[in-house]
Amino acid sequence: MKTFLRFAMAFVLLFTLSDNAFASQPMHPKGYVTDFTGLKENYNIGDRVKLTVTTQTGGELTNAVFRVASVGGDSINDAITSVQTTYRKSNATYTTTGYLTLSSEGVYFVQYQAKLKLKDGEITIKETATIEILNPNKITMTATPGSVHVKKGTEVPILITYSSKYTPKFTYSTKVTELYTTRSSKGNRKVILFSADQAGEYKLTIEAKNKYDAVTDTVKIIVE
Q1: CB burial string 52-71: b at 16+ within 10 A, e below
Q2: What is the value of pTM for the model shown?
Q3: pLDDT tens, position by position, for the chain (224 residues)?
Q4: β-pairing verdict for 48-57 and 80-88
């Protein structure tokens, strides 16, 4: 549901910017080829992102601009600066560049738009790129399983997957045994054991905390 709302918000936001804002236009059969180049899918807060769009055409390109909108970010204050367009006659290519320094996490939509004069008239070029801005100090964590039924005295293994730039400290709302922790570029994993000799419903709250962030997750354990 959250994913649906996120993209629904994005759809509404984009189409409030202009009559046909951020609607990618199909490639003209003969007039031009245009693309964003060199963009990554993810950046961190504070990164200065260089935007580059190349347009190969036999026509004349004018009025090249960038626009930006976001879901969860700050597209009002995160303006695109130092926009300029150059032309290379040897391969009939226009290159438009600009810089975007991002101050908050979110999903950003960057649209390139320009006017292109061709022999048979003038058309508008529109090309859109999507990038996600992450907070490098933020902790992400998930405990699996989220709930479980067991018999008294059964040891319940719980897998904690997490990512954090700084090593977090883990605390637990009830006694557990930490078995091991593995760290890799693909993510970190910790395995703990919980067991109870008394029947009942237990809620194990796990907290991961570093100097910048703290997150919790809860595992529901029913002991019979």
Answers
A1: ebbbebebebeebebbbbbb
A2: 0.59
A3: 444 344 434 443 443 444 444 444 444 556 899 999 999 988 988 899 999 999 999 999 999 999 988 887 665 556 789 999 999 999 999 999 999 988 888 888 999 999 999 988 899 999 999 998 888 888 999 999 999 999 998 999 999 999 888 889 999 999 999 999 998 777 799 999 999 989 999 999 999 999 889 999 999 999 99
A4: unpaired
